[in-house]
Amino acid sequence: MLEVQHISKSFGGVKATDDVTLDFATGSLTAVIGPNGAGKSTFFNLITGALKPDSGRILLDGVDMAGRSPPDIVRHGIGRAFQVASIFPSLTVSETMLAAVGADQRRASVMHRRFPLAETRERADYVIELLGLANKRDRIASALSHGDQKLLDIALALVLEPKVLLLDEPTAGMGTEERWRMIEKVHELWVREKITVVFIEHDMDIVFKIALSIVVLCYGRILATGTPDEIRRNPAVIEAYLGTDEHAGAL
Amino acid sequence: MSELNVENRAGAVPYVARPRRAAAIDVVAAVVAFAILAALPFLFDSKALLDFVIRCAAFGLFATSLNLLVGYTGLISFGHGMFFGLGAYGFGLLMQRANVSIPVAMVCTLAITAVAAVVIGAICVRLKEIYFAFVTLAFQMLIHSVILSWQSLTGGDQGLRGGIKRPVFWGIDLTNHVQLYIFSCALLVIGLLLMRQIAQSPFGYTLRMIRDNATRASFIGINVWRAKLTVFVLAALFASAGGMIMSLFVSGAYPEFAYWTISGEGIFINMLGGVTTFLGPMVGTVILLILNDTATRLTEHYGLVLGIVILFFALGLRKGLMDFAVDWYRAWRDKAKEQS
Ligand SMILES: Nc1ncnc2c1ncn2[C@@H]1O[C@H](COP(=O)(O)OP(=O)(O)OP(=O)(O)O)[C@@H](O)[C@H]1O
Ligand SMILES: [Mg+2]
User: Fold this and answer.
1) CA distance linking residue B25 with residue B200, whole number of Å
2) Proportion of chain A above pLDDT 70, given as a percent
């Protein structure tokens, strides 16, 4: 499905992504972990076209995405949500969704009809319900709680019906309880929509509980990949990342 | 009908729920506005009033088109006045030299404006905010200096003199002041209706998304650059139409029409009226022209008066008049809702 082959990216002297090769199978649920500054967000930025890789290939169903523009890559089926919720502050939840479906249907430049288009309603409503935002559909996005803004960001990616969904720290900035609710939502999406999901997460309890496979990044390199059990027992991971006090409890 | 489903949910925003009805309301409002404007010459025997409305039409189209860029897309152009000037000069020159009918001259002027806007827009819309503002300003100055220096064509600092012929077309005689007035009002109303449609269309919402968060817009598949260029060209066309009205009104064209201060006035108008409502710039136009006329009559220090008013709006209110009107209306409505 999504194969990343030998991609690298440097900022000045810093190798933010260093010869990363990974394969995400159709329908997989993968967690990407790693300490701050490990290059996790950069990895997503490379796949989604926010950054152009210095080298390497990014194959989606065999088609190379490397170096393409974000709209082009989105249209091929790679959707993403951002570490800091990225929304349209002045639009309501339903306007946001309706406009996004319109864009996906290549109707973003239609001028002779009124917004919203009737044919965008069903899908917009479906995703609003799916993410539990139905009772907030007429709220202005900037007035939503932090958690709801993160949900709206995910909804924006999901409403495009992507093949691969990349979630950059869906639980960032949340308290423990809210984290679990969010991650259960993500799990539910994965089950119901049967898409390939890759998410970045710092909370080890969450990662080991729901991910089917885990990728550990460190200094832009892959330190380890495997099932949660394999990662838990991997000596390099324990030493470099999990071995610190704060994470010892999760092991 | 799925439209009705959404509408029935508590608290649904009406204009999201009923696009067709919203479009119909706009058309009715436009027809009513035009009827009222068209009745004025028969109610008041005042040439000054008609002159005032004609200028409102010219600057209103210009300022509203600027709001498509500033308010809807977040593109702050300091050079939008170049298209106003291009409209005035293009139309004036075609009428003086090409011996064509008025509608043909208008269509040709729009075509010229479109070509210029595509070229200038292609260079400008990729630039970040402040650079966009200054490069558009630079193009404005370029066009102004071309007009000044190309004397044989434009008459230089004297402008297009000798008047513009106004041959009768479709039974319309624009040498007749009332007919010129009605014609200007018709252009204004049609222009506003078209811009309103653009603003409320899916494309209009694409513009809002770009204004709010262009990065996110590109990650849902929107070609941000193309959308910006499209609205840049569209706005130029309406500004050009405003310039044409001005050219008809003064029967010529003057370098001031293409000077950067026109762009500045466009920005002032938008600040006065507010950019969060569609009609804000129209209200701002009326205020600025009234201010202009009274201030120049009463004092030589027109610039000073204008400066103070603008500082008052920018620093004191931090909003345009129409923004206030909307806030008041919302507060009043919420209160009414609570009480019932
Ligand atoms: N646009 C950029 N320009 C320069 N350096 C960058 C850029 N983006 C990332 N970096 C650098 O690349 C490295 C990896 O950053 P990245 O944001 O990918 O880390 P991360 O794993 O997502 O960290 P966090 O857990 O804090 O989100 C860091 O050293 C960062 O400073
Ligand atoms: Mg990150």
Assistant:
1) 12
2) 96
Q: Compute how many other C-beta atoms are within 10 angstroms of the C-beta atom of residue A135.
A: 12
Residue B231 in any domain: the answer is yes
CA A132/CA A191 separation, integer angstroms: 16
The residue range of the domain holding A202 is 2-250
Host domain of residue B205:
6-259
Residues (pLDDT < 70) of chain A are 241-251
CA distance A101 to chain B (A): 9
Q: What is the CATH number of the domain that holds A120?
A: 3.40.50.300
Please report the pLDDT score of residue B5 as a whole number: 35
Atom of ligand 1 nearest to the CA of A169: 27
Task: Select from A7, A42, A221, A223 the residue to mutate for testing ligand 1; criterion: most ligand atoms less than 8 Å from CB.
Answer: A42
Tokens standing for residue A100? 């996004």
| Per-residue pLDDT, B144 | 93
* Sign of the CA dihedral with B217 first, then B222, B223, and B226 last: negative
What SS3 class is residue B275?
coil
> Whole-model pTM?
0.90
How far apart are the CA of A60 and the nearest CA of chain B, in angstroms? Answer: 17
Question: Number of structural domains, chain B?
Answer: 1
- Angle at which helix B19-43 crosses helix B47-67, to 10 degrees, equals 160
Average pLDDT of each block of 10 consecutive residues along chain B (340 residues)?
A: 34 55 91 95 90 96 97 94 96 91 96 97 92 94 92 84 87 91 97 97 97 96 96 98 96 90 91 89 93 82 80 77 83 83
Question: Is A4 strand, coil or helix?
Answer: strand
Ligand 1 contacts (CB < 6 A) are A 11, 14, 16, 34, 36-42, 83
